[in-house]
Amino acid sequence: MTRVLKIGAAQLGPIQRDDNRKEVVERLIALLNQGAVESCDLVVFPELALTTFFPRWWSENITESDHFFETEMPSQEVQPLFDEAKKLGIGFHLGYAEMTSDGHRYNTSILVSKNGDTLGKYRKVHLPGHEENEPWRTFQHLERYYFEPGNEFKVFGAFNGVVGMAICNDRRWSETYRVLGLKGCELALIGYNTPVHYPPDPSQDALAGFHNHLVMQSGAYQNGMWVVGVAKAGNEEGCDLLGESSIIAPSGEIVAQCSTVEDELVSAVADLDMCAKYKETLFDFDRYRRPEVYKSITSQVGVEIPEGIEVRKQDDEKPEG
Ligand code: CDT
């Protein structure tokens, strides 16, 4: 059995508020066709790949944004993407805003097989930003207003391997990769919309690209898995989104990376058997992990400095006189 697949990271340039689904799906299909030229087995599209990143806007009435959500997948407008992928024999990953029939809103991604069957669905666990309008910001990040969190990191048997999904902010949390890793994940697919400007601490802006790769490369290496991180990039409604989509090997090395902030596909051959090199040596979980020492990771949310440790302000430390 071959465990080698060609993966395409299909970065999207910006999607503006007035761009309709038909136009966007045409762009996705163009990228898919480029994936076919490069003999891809799997093409990975980003988070919220069908619309602009609408959580940047506050709306008193949440239902005013319901047109950004999909009530069925594939919808009539997205069906051509499924048809084209099936015709080309390419699987794909797609992020979108999901509205369930009983009115729940999620930031969701799906994994679709080469036959056009939906193999798995994932709902974003770590929702960043804030719940209320914060008018001092140049743009909002209201994911905690528009979405409910998902509650599970899942893996799926697909493409002759074990495949997991995470979405954007999930990639900054080591727990994401470790939970996937504990489920044997060999390939993690991650879409993102990352504003380069971070209003609560603009000193991080210059580090946006560094942090993006830092977390995904560490996650790949520490769990012996391939990681594919794919951006919606460029200037979207006045907000600059990070590009630098990449395909990362279980060694932690970047093997392919986008160079623009536009629609761009880069591809790489991923040998899933390479994961074993790391999973069976340095990161042999069975042999080396010490879960009995890690209990606070699941029992505790925030920081609890153990009793008896005094934290003094810098001023207190100055010698008197
Ligand atoms: N889409 C998304 O999750 N973006 C976040 C922005 C963090 S700042 C609120 C990210 O982690 O890239």
Biggest pleated sheet: 6 strands, mixed
Radius of gyration: 21 Å
Shape: globular
Strand order of the largest sheet: 5-4-3-2-1-14
Query: Class by helix and strand content?
Result: alpha/beta
Question: What integer is the average pLDDT?
Answer: 97
Helix content estimate: 10-25%
**What proportion strand?**
15-25%
- Helices, by number, come to 8
- In the predicted model, the low-confidence regions spanning at least 5 consecutive residues are none
Bound molecules: 4-methylsulfanyl-2-ureido-butyric acid
Q: Separation of termini? A: 76 Å
Number of E-type strands? 14
Query: What is the helix/strand order?
Result: EHEHEEEHEEHEHEEEEEEHHH
3D architecture notes:
The chain has 321 residues and is α/β, with parallel strands linked by helices. The chain is built from eight helices and 14 strands. The strands form three sheets. A six-stranded mixed sheet has the order 5-4-3-2-1-14, covered by helices on one side. The radius of gyration is 21 Å and the shape is globular. The site of 4-methylsulfanyl-2-ureido-butyric acid has 11 residues, from loops.
Note the main attributes of this structure.
24% strand; globular; binds 4-methylsulfanyl-2-ureido-butyric acid; 14 strands; six-stranded mixed sheet; alpha/beta; 321 residues; single chain
